[in-house]
Amino acid sequence: MSDIASTSDDTAARRDALVERLFLATVGTMDVLAVYIGDRLGLYRILAERGPMTSVQLADRGGAERALRARVARTAGDECHPRGRRRER
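User: That's the sequence. What structure does it adopt?
Assistant: Structure tokens below.
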């Protein structure tokens, strides 16, 4: 009976380790994506030129909202209208 419990505990520990590894990898991927988007929108350049600012100030000065909407519209292609509504076909 203890062998079964031990095997079950080992399986659970291995499962938990895998879940943690996948979660941390996903978080790392999202960090890289956020840096990429910030670079493409010129947010790091603006911060380097103008110094520290809040996220609202950065969005206002960088036109990030407009640029992000345009980027999403280009990425979505024919599937999506620029304002986020699906096009009628």
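The two ends are 63 Å apart (CA to CA).
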